[in-house]
Specification:
single chain, about 250 residues, alpha/beta, TIM Barrel, 11 helices, globular, binds 2-phosphoglycolic acid
Length: about 250
């Protein structure tokens, strides 16, 4: 059985005070980690303060990291630094990183290898543009992204990997993929993992849906057999909404 995983991606939002207030409120109210995993991925400068206050059941992840351990990369965050702060998860290949900062499938692959090397659990984002969906190319795009992202990644390492299916046309637009559409894409991704790594790995790997997930639509999304959680942007900024969505996962164990 796959444990639901509800993660918030704060993107470039919140000041230190706002973030501390949020975590103080949320960490004691999210479900027990035995049942539902929850994480918040804040901007990097907040990681240290939030980890100190994450409590028993909430985990703090990063939104990005570099694929080298250290070096002359101004403005980047090293996997070693994340590790030293006890960061557990790191989002890799978010579409905003790919589209606004030029991250390629090859970069994503290198980052996944580096995260796994240092015991950071990657949340690997994949998803198609609207035009690709309209041209019937969704599965081709997902297949290419999965193939390249996991190039050289060993079967045993997949245990620590979470995949987030985030159709780009649904991110921050208020246009959620219908549960059917999201469920079908997540099922297709699982079939790709099965072809490559076998059914044990495919059955165990968790696949989140992301793209305008809100308290009012999370239930129908989590009802889908192949959706094991959510990666939430906008609605994760509100403590009450995040708590509601984390608790909603309790109905889908
Ligand atoms: P959204 O963002 O929930 O605001 O659509 C999701 C994401 O980008 O991970």
């Amino acid at each position: 059985m796959r444990k639901p995983f509800i993660a918030g991606n704060w993107k470039m939002h919140k000041t230190r005070d706002e973030a501390l207030y949020f975590v103080l409120k949320v960490s004691s109210e999210v479900p027990n980690m035995d049942k539902v995993e929850t994480a918040i991925c804040p901007p990097s400068p907040l990681l240290r303060d939030l980890i100190k206050r994450q409590g028993e059941n909430l985990r703090i992840g990063a939104q990005n990291m570099h694929y080298e351990e250290e070096g002359a990369f101004t403005g980047e965050v090293s996997p070693l630094l994340l590790k030293s702060y006890n960061v557990t998860h790191v989002i890799i290949g978010h579409s905003e990183r790919r589209n606004l900062f030029g991250e390629t499938d090859e970069d994503v692959n290198r980052k996944i290898h580096m995260a796994l090397k240092h015991g950071l659990k990657p949340i690997v984002c994949i998803g198609e543009h609207l035009e690709e969906r309209e041209n019937g190319k969704t599965n081709d795009v997902l297949e290419r992204q999965v193939k390249k992202a996991f190039d050289g990644v060993k079967k045993e390492d997949l245990e620590d990997v979470v995949i987030a299916y985030e159709p780009i046309w649904a991110i921050g637009t208020g246009k959620t993929a219908t549960a059917d559409v999201a469920g079908e894409a997540c099922g297709f991704i699982r079939s790709l993992i099965k072809d490559r790594y076998g059914s044990d790995v495919a059955e165990a790997i968790r696949i989140q849906y992301g793209g305008s997930v809100k308290p009012h639509n999370i239930d129908e999304l989590l009802d889908e057999e192949d959706i094991d959680g959510a990666l939430i942007g906008g609605a994760s900024l509100d403590a009450d909404k995040f708590i509601t969505m984390a608790k909603a996962a309790l109905n889908h164990l």
